[in-house]
């Protein structure tokens, strides 16, 4: 009998290949022909697993998000309040090779979103969820006395998101302007703007320097 095909496994393989092609050469390198060739498929066979390229790009983006979530879960494990917030902010920034590779995939996803309403809508949903989660954690930190700034929680969340997106873009196209040591200093600056007491800020910085 012919061997059963694991369609979910094939889709994961296609997404992995797409992710690697984008990291190596950007969105232009991830043509349907190249994706099929790298994944070991005949031309046209991808349509059996994905309706179109947007669906493959979205899958590669989701793979990047899954890796980010895995890093955040690990980084924030056992932490609460301001320490958890700092770990989450650091975990979403391009501070290591893996996160800088993810930045290339994000740029491709954003570029595709300019011409795809579905991708644009998907990212806006992600932004809304990210903002809600950050705002909720910032509120916890404020109630614990770790954030004393009069800046509204939603505004702080927006500033952290903009900081993250700017750093992500620069890490991919102008890495000398987003060196890890620069980003670490900027994290300290962001937390100082929140009015985090010096003793709490010092503890957080020491934890992540070790």
TrEMBL record:
Residues covered by the HTH tetR-type domain: 8-68
GO MF annotations, alphabetized: DNA-binding transcription factor activity; transcription cis-regulatory region binding
Keyword DNA-binding appears in the UniProt entry: yes
Protein name per Swiss-Prot or TrEMBL: TetR/AcrR family transcriptional regulator
InterPro entries tied to this protein: BetI_C (IPR039538), Homeodomain-like_sf (IPR009057), HTH-type_TetR-like_transc_reg (IPR050109), HTH_TetR (IPR001647), Tet_transcr_reg_TetR-rel_C_sf (IPR036271)
Keywords attached to this entry: DNA-binding, Repressor, Transcription, Transcription regulation
DNA-binding region: 31-50
Keyword Repressor: yes
Coiled-coil stretches: none
Pfam family, any one: TetR_C_6
Alphabetical list of Gene3D superfamilies matching this protein: Tetracycline Repressor, domain 2
């Amino acid at each position: 009998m012919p061997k059963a095909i694991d369609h979910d496994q094939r889709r994961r393989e296609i997404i992995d290949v797409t992710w690697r092609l984008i990291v190596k050469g950007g969105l232009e390198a991830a043509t349907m022909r190249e994706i099929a060739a790298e994944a070991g498929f005949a031309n046209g066979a991808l349509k059996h697993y994905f309706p179109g390229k947007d669906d493959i790009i979205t899958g590669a983006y989701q793979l990047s998000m899954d890796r980010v979530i895995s890093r955040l879960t690990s980084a924030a494990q056992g932490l609460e309040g301001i320490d958890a917030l700092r770990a989450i902010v650091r975990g979403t920034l391009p501070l290591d090779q893996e996160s800088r590779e993810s930045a290339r995939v994000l740029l491709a996803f954003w570029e595709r979103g300019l011409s795809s309403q579905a991708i644009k809508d998907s990212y806006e949903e992600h932004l809304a969820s990210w903002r809600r989660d950050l705002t909720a954690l910032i509120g916890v930190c404020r109630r614990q006395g770790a954030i004393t700034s009069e800046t509204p929680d939603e505004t702080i969340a927006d500033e952290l998101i903009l900081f993250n997106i700017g750093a992500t873009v620069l890490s991919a196209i102008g890495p000398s302007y987003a060196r890890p040591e620069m980003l670490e200093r900027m994290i300290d600056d962001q937390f100082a703007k929140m009015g985090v007491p010096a003793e709490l800020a010092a503890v957080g910085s020491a934890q992540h320097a070790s």
